[in-house]
Amino acid sequence: MSKKQIIPKKTPMPEQPAAERIKNYDEVPYGYTPEQAMAEAKRCIECGRPLCVDGCPVNINIPAFLKLAAAGDFRGAINLIKETNALPAVSGRVCPQEEQCEAKCALSKRYESVAIGRLERFVADWEASQGSPPLPELPPPTGKKIAVVGSGPAGITVAADLVKMGHHVTIFEALHEAGGVLVYGIPEFRLPKAIVRREVEYVCRLGVKLVKDFVVGAAETVDELLEGYDAVFLGTGAGLPWFLNVPGENLNGVYSANEYLTRANLMKAYRFPEYDTPIVRGKRVATIGGGNVAVDSARTALRLGAEESIIVYRRSREEMPARKEEIHHAEQEGIRFELLTSPVAFHGDSNGWVREIECIRNELGEPDASGRRRPVPIKDSNFRIPVDVVVLAIGQSPNPLIAKTTPALKTGKDGVVIVDNETMKTSKKGVFAGGDVATGGATVILAMGQGKKAAKAIDEYLKTRQW
What does the CA dihedral 399, 409, 446, 31 come to, rounded to 10 degrees? Predict the structure, then answer.
């Protein structure tokens, strides 16, 4: 460590008070001011071996960007980040930095790490405040064409990297708005959609062509795409929700998180009747699950008018996979946590609407395959929770459409496309895949990292044609 003075704690980031924010869909944190950002960047102790870079799935040169930000050179900082990250305003908001770059920060051994994510967000927002960002100089066109299926984080990243290599790239998006999980899954109060549109527009300005309302596997198959393109990248995400398979799951008022969040976010049900997307606005809403999707759903329910929003999770708080910051925000907002609890049935009224969840208490047993202690039901501990809406956020799988219409494409457990982890090559020549379609549900930044790996491998394949 250097001899510079150490400031133990992160510069706090101002945010909306909990009592106010549960009544609106505005973003919760306000972000840093330039002075706060410079002060936080100066906390970097410029250690000899910066492990923070090793913790970043897209390999941002973190020490260099922090040094530029500390000096007030925000243009230089954002330009450096964008050399390896096409979505800095997104990843600065939703990336689990506390488990990645910030976990590796030398300061974190004794103090709070540098707020790398907050600073990434700040310089990206600063750039947006300056007008349209300048475009990098691109190499001469190679004449090679790549089809990218899906405009989520993996698809946008691979497209941005490939177009900067001189290739012609077309993104095919099934929905009416680009962004994938960034627009249909993550709520406005955590990731404003104007920011996603801004990042997508930048990639299109680089030269990427975007085709919306185009369902690959229906409008055209992967094999048909390969007749006109030199390679195909599959970044179609994981849009098939999981269910519990317990009695009463088909009652009215029981949603999958995919449908609940898509209605609220992409289809703007929170602005009904201005947007004609109805959603059941329950007074007592229970969300089943403990990940980011569950916390997003529970916090959305509050903003849709729920008097009580409850998270029902089968393990303890320590085992919850959601980001600590999101759990903290949920607690601030008054969300109730029913931990070590599993639903065993849903009970409805005579009209077929859900009215109660029957649950059983758990205790933690030995660790399972995830490394977390397995929940073990406690005999005769059943109890009921009154509800009028239930959201199931227990996981998801890739939609089977592309696998069913691409015979040579090998899939594994839950329909995940099998890939080589270094090149993201699939079993079918010329076809690559990354993001949730290749991992099941994972993080935005992991999907972006796989997009970068795939872009490098696609470029190599186009040059050599070796598979």
Answer: -40
Residues with Cβ < 8 Å from 421, sequence gap 6 or more?
none
Write the CA distances from 100 to 31, 57, 117, 376, 403, integer angstroms.
21, 8, 10, 31, 32
The answer on 118 and 79 residing in a single domain is yes
Per-residue pLDDT at 230 exceeds 50? yes
In percent, the amount of the chain with pLDDT more than 70 equals: 99
Which of 339, 362, 394 represents a domain boundary (last residue)? 394
The pLDDT value given to residue 267: 83
Shared domain for 390 and 413, answered yes or no, is no
Summarised one tens digit per residue, pLDDT across range 83-131 is 999 999 999 999 999 999 999 999 999 999 999 999 999 999 999 999 9
Tokens of 200: 């997508």
275 pLDDT above the threshold of 90: no
2 falls within a domain: no
Can you tell me the distance from the alpha carbon of 232 to that of 431, in angstroms, rounded to the nearest whole number?
5
153: left (phi over 0), alpha (psi -120 to 50) or beta: alpha
- The answer to whether residues 112 and 324 touch, using CB atoms and an 8 Å cutoff, is no
Domain that holds residue 458: 145-239+397-464
Contact 187, 300 (CB under 8 A): yes
Q: Provide long-range contacts, Cβ within 8 A and 24+ apart, for 369-376.
A: 372/315, 372/319, 373/315, 373/319, 375/314, 375/315, 375/340, 375/342
Q: Considering the domain boundaries, does residue 263 fall inside one?
A: yes
Same domain, 207 and 313: no
Asked if residue 251 is part of any domain, the answer here is yes
Mean pLDDT score of the chain, rounded to an integer?
A: 95
Enumerate residues 6+ apart whose C-beta is below 8 A from 369. Answer: none
* CA neighbours closer than 13 Å in the CB half-sphere of residue 424: 32
Sign, CA dihedral 252-250-335-291, equals negative
Cα distance between residue 114 and residue 11, in whole Å: 9
Q: What is the pTM of this model?
A: 0.94
